[in-house]
Amino acid sequence: MAARGRNAADVLVLFDVDDTLTAPRKPVTPEMLEFMRQLRQHVALGVVGGSDLAKITEQLGKSGLEPIQSIFTDYDYVFSENGLVAHKNGELIGTQALNNDRPVVLHSLQSLKSFLGDDKLKEIINFTLHYIADLDIPIKTGTFIELRNGMINVSPIGRNCSQEERDEFEKYDKVHNIRPKMVSVLRERFTHLNLTFSIGGQISFDVFPQGWDKTYCLRYLEEFQEIHFFGDKTYKLPALMTRYNNAEISSWLSDLHLIVPLICTYTSTPESTVNYYSLLACNKK
Ligand SMILES: [Mg+2]
Question: Of 18, 52, 76, 173, which one is the catalytic site residue?
Fold first, then answer.
């Protein structure tokens, strides 16, 4: 990418976590850690995940075969909860600020709560718990609702399930559409709140205000001339297209959903992430 006449320091490569750097909810492999280490010699690196910082650190900060590494030393930028909590070189540079386009450091981790207000939040939680209570599925565990800084995570089976139960639920859901049906009911019930419902991973879906998706982190990255985003749900980022719709569109990788200066590449597994990156690196020569 630097071969296109730009200083490598102007290029940021930004990665999603699940299905991009790791298998869903699994730790990063030593091979991927090594790939990242080499990549960082050429470009700035960032990671953006929907989970909170503790979960992202758990997945990316260590591997069974490698000594524990801090993600803050491996990545220039770490965006947890899609960037509602943002770190640069290990320093907190922002959390979601209400009614403010620019990121401001707030030392409160209750922003969704502040954004919606206690009454609306309670309404959503009550309705969701009632829905889950009436839901007849083979297994239920615990933690059906997890309130995070910028989103509500809802799991019909409950987040306390084992890996085996998780796998079983995913299969069951594919047949019975438990999550899609639930989302359509919630979407209709709460139309007035302008919420986005996003089904992801194996057992849950996220509920958050419109715009609080992975595009949120872009506001921290204006210093870069070029940003490459690798993720398994790039098709879900229409806001990216809007923001850069006047930019030139490069032809050399048009089949990979390429937009300059923001270049989105669809991946589906950690292996495809490495392969696509290698392809990009090859094409620039
Ligand atoms: Mg993903």
Answer: 18
Q: In terms of Cα–Cα distance, which of 89, 68, 65, 62 is closest to 78?
A: 89
Centroid of ligand 1 to alpha carbon of 5 (angstroms)? 31
Whether residue 134 is annotated as binding a ligand: the answer is no
Long-range contacts made by residues 23-27, C-beta under 8 angstroms, separation at least 24?
23/269, 23/270, 24/201, 24/202, 25/59, 25/201, 25/202, 26/59, 27/58, 27/59, 27/60, 27/62, 27/63, 27/64
Q: Is 148 annotated among the ligand-binding residues?
A: yes
List, for residues 1-20, the tens digit of each pLDDT value: 433 334 566 888 899 998 88
* 136 assigned to active site: no
16 annotated as ligand-binding: yes
Mean pLDDT (the chain) is 78
CA distance 120 to 126: 10
Residue 18 known to be catalytic? yes
Highest-confidence segment of 185-194, 234-243, 262-271 = 185-194
272 a known binding residue? no
Please report where in the chains the tokens 């419109």 appear, as a residue: 210
Tokens 């609702």, residue located: 145
Comparing CA positions, the residue from 35, 1, 10, 33 lying closest to residue 275 is 35
**How many angstroms separate the alpha carbon of residue 60 from the centre of ligand 1?**
13
pLDDT of 127-148, one tens digit each? 999 999 999 999 999 999 998 8
Residue range 174-183: average pLDDT?
97
Domains of the chain (ranges plus CATH)? 11-97+213-283 (3.40.50.1000), 117-209 (3.30.1240.20)
Q: Alpha helix (H) ranges present in 107-149?
A: 111-116, 118-133
